């Protein structure tokens, strides 16, 4: 993907480009959310859209998340392609009825006679001290509800290409962005491209352990992989990118190669997406597993505010390392602190 | 006695009566089919409220849309949906509007201007706002009319939707069908205001309280609201006061409503009232009125015959149509 025209963009800039390009391409695309027009969004993802596309297509809505989502569904039903921005992904609790009971079901309830091309974007804000009501990672809610596509990108390149695909897709898509990744730069080619939905990306090839993950977990896994490489242990980091539909082919192929699976997710553990990944691999390739699969996840507690507490709840690189060691059935003797 | 100005007017009035009788006949037949176990789940009959749907939809054009509720058959018939395809749907057959996937509470026919019936009682209010905005973006002049009940008036989404509609000047009309009871809870126990229509003041758009058993009255206030919306002057909230004289649903056997209240509302039957109006003000002969009623019954019987002859969906089709066609939708890879 790297060529002479590749720039370094952060994820906010990459998403912003995707919106500019898709709004340019299709007059039915519009964005609605809080502080997205004049201000360009709390995280600058919608910067410049108002000037280019005007207030009918770039809408600063009242603080009415459910109505924004519902309006998105309605606009989609008449053939538009709305992109609804949830300022903080935790506010999904306010929009669940519109997303789950409406966006996700309308097509099926109509016997396949309507389409709902609707994108709900939200910023997952854990890891920066935003506390319990601004730090949840709730993708499994949407994976569980039928009829929704669920995407969580890890890099600016993926974010741009996947958002463009999400907007063009005829299905409702929940697109969750990790806030800590907004400012993280990465290469993005200057030209037009999309990334297909439902295709995982092997971010690092390896032979010894498969680490299946997504969003910020990818960066934890890559860090852990660099540590293990120094010991001659090669992790294969599979960035799932799309949680639903899940690319089980790539996932299972990797596990068949390595025989060991660690799943890293920043969501809490019980009922989380990591459990689904383990279940899916067990369904399709149980015999290929040489050791029990390991889940590295957040703890089952509301996110605490204070830094040492939040750090204790969210998975860290050392937790991924410990998970990989468990999958390798290695007993690692910690050195006693000096 | 004022004769209709033109034959077209007379026809339009008879059409209103026919639609009202079709709704009545459809609902009564649907309740019977439920008892015969040909309809599953439930049916929420619209009996007694026919004037609202028929009056409101008479003020809409073919490019306008409605959203509806769990009690939606009346809205569908008033908007001109096909009785046969409706009946096939609620009996769960392949020829139904939604191929039997949606049933009584989810009839959708976008090509007829029916965005969908929504069993989350106020759930479609925001959908109406977004659809109206979408139509405007596309340069279409359609208005979206959202039906909801007095019970739904207390769901939060309606507040958000009304306010958003006001802010966007969305071409919407909100029609609250106040039928007095949310299953077993009277409206008076759910709100401290006498008129739900008064809530419009809180959104900065007009609220109109009207007699929901007067089909021409409902048509009149809706026509004004639609014209206002179409002109870009913003939404209107219409509260149409009526009553459902049948139970909450065919499956709800308990009815806490006082019998004398029911009797009083039966005496205000909107269909008989409009029939009298046609006889007295437009010299429509009793034989003609009977003809229209019979026609409605025949239409419904034909719909039942059609529905019962329609094939049941194949079980393996249960997994189809969760998602719209997409590149990623290759067999065996769907999560």
Relevant terms:
heterodimer, A: alpha/beta, Rossmann fold, 2 domains, seven-stranded mixed sheet, 37% helix, B: 335 residues, six-stranded parallel sheet, 11 helices
Give the percentage of residues in beta strands of chain B. Answer: 5-15%
The rounded Rg of chain A comes to 20 Å
CATH architecture of chain B: 3-Layer(aba) Sandwich
Taken together, the total number of domains of chain A comes to 2
Q: CATH homologous superfamily of the largest domain in chain A?
A: Thiamin diphosphate (ThDP)-binding fold, Pyr/PP domains
Explained architecture:
The complex is a heterodimer of chains A (338) and B (335). Chain A is α/β, with parallel strands linked by helices. Helix content of chain A is 37%, strand content 20%. In chain A, the strands form 3 sheets. In chain A, strands 3-2-4-5-7-6-12 form a 7-stranded mixed β-sheet, sandwiched between helices. Chain A has a 5-stranded mixed β-sheet with strand order 9-11-10-13-14, sandwiched between helices. In chain A, helix 1 packs parallel to helix 7. The longest helix of chain A has 15 residues, at 11-25. The mean pLDDT of chain A is 96. Chain B has helices spanning 7-35, 50-58, 73-78, 83-90, 124-137, 156-168, 187-190, 215-230, 259-266, 270-282, 286-309; strands at residues 65-69, 114-118, 144-149, 172-178, 181-182, 185-186, 207-211, 236-241. Chain B has a 6-stranded parallel β-sheet with strand order 2-1-3-4-8-7, sandwiched between helices. A two-stranded antiparallel sheet of chain B has the order 5-6. With 335 residues, chain B is α/β, with parallel strands linked by helices. The longest helix of chain B has 29 residues, at 7-35. Chain B has one domain: 3-Layer(aba) Sandwich (Rossmann fold), CATH 3.40.50.970. Chain B contains 11 helices and 8 strands. The interface between A and B is large, with 60 and 57 residues.
């Amino acid at each position: 993907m790297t060529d002479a025209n590749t720039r370094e963009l952060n994820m906010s800039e990459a998403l912003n480009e995707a919106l500019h390009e898709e709004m340019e391409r299709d007059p039915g695309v519009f964005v609605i959310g809080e502080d997205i027009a004049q201000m360009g969004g709390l995280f600058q993802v919608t910067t410049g859209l108002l000037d280019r596309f005007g207030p009918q297509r770039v809408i600063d809505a009242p603080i009415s998340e459910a109505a924004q989502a519902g309006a998105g569904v309605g606009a989609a039903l008449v053939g538009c392609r709305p992109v609804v921005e949830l300022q903080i992904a935790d506010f999904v609790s306010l929009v669940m009825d519109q997303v789950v009971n409406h966006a996700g079901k309308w097509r099926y309830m109509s016997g396949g006679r309507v389409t709902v091309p609707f994108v709900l974007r939200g910023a997952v804000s854990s890891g920066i001290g935003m506390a319990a009501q601004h730090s949840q990672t709730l993708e499994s809610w949407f994976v569980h509800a039928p009829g929704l596509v669920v995407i969580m990108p890890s890099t600016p390149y993926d974010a741009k290409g996947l958002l463009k695909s999400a907007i063009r897709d005829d299905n409702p898509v929940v697109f969750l962005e990790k806030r800590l990744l907004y400012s993280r730069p990465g290469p993005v080619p200057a030209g037009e491209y999309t990334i297909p939905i439902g295709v995982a990306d092997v971010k690092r090839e390896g032979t010894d352990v498969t680490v299946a993950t997504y969003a910020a977990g990818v960066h934890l896994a890559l860090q852990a992989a660099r540590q293990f490489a120094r010991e001659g242990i090669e992790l294969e980091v599979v960035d799932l990118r799309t949680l639903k539909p899940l690319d089980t082919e790539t996932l299972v192929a990797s596990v068949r190669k390595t025989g060991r699976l660690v799943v890293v997710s920043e969501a809490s553990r019980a009922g989380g997406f990591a459990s689904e990944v383990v279940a899916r691999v067990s369904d399709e390739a149980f015999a290929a597993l040489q050791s029990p699969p390991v889940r590295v996840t957040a703890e089952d507690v509301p996110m605490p505010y204070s830094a040492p507490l939040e750090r204790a709840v969210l998975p860290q690189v050392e937790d991924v390392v410990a998970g990989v060691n468990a999958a390798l059935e290695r007993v690692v003797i910690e050195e006693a602190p000096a | 006695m004022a004769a209709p100005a033109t034959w077209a007017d007379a026809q339009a009035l008879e059409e209103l009566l026919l639609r009202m009788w079709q709704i009545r006949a459809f609902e009564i037949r649907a309740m019977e089919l439920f008892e015969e176990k040909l309809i599953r789940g439930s049916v929420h009959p619209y009996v007694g409220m026919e004037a609202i749907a028929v009056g409101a939809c008479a003020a809409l054009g073919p490019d306008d849309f409605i959203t509806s509720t769990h009690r939606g058959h009346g809205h569908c018939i008033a908007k001109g949906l096909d009785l046969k395809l409706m009946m096939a749907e609620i009996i769960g057959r392949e020829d139904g509007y939604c191929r039997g996937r949606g049933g009584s509470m989810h009839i959708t026919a976008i090509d007829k201007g029916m965005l969908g019936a929504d069993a989350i009682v106020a759930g479609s209010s925001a959908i109406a706002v977004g659809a109206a905005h979408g139509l405007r973006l596309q340069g279409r002049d359609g208005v979206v009319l959202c039906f909801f009940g007095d019970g739904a008036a207390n769901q939060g989404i309606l507040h958000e939707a009304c306010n958003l509609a006001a802010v966007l000047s969305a071409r919407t009309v909100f029609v609250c069908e106040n039928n007095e009871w949310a299953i077993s809870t009277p409206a008076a126990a759910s709100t401290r205001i006498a008129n739900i229509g008064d809530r419009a003041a809180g959104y900065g758009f007009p609220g109109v309280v009207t007699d929901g058993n007067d089909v021409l009255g409902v048509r009149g206030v809706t026509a004004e609201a639609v014209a206002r919306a179409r002109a870009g002057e913003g939404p209107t909230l219409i509260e149409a006061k009526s009553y459902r004289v049948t139970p909450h649903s065919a499956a709800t056997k308990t009815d806490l409503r006082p019998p004398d209240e029911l009797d009083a509302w039966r005496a205000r039957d909107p269909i008989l009232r409009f029939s009298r109006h046609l006889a007295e003000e437009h010299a429509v002969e009793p034989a003609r009125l009977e003809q229209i009623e019979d026609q409605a019954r025949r239409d419904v019987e034909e719909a039942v015959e059609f529905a019962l002859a329609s094939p049941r969906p194949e079980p393996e089709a249960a997994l189809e149509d969760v998602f719209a066609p997409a590149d990623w939708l290759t067999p065996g890879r769907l999560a």
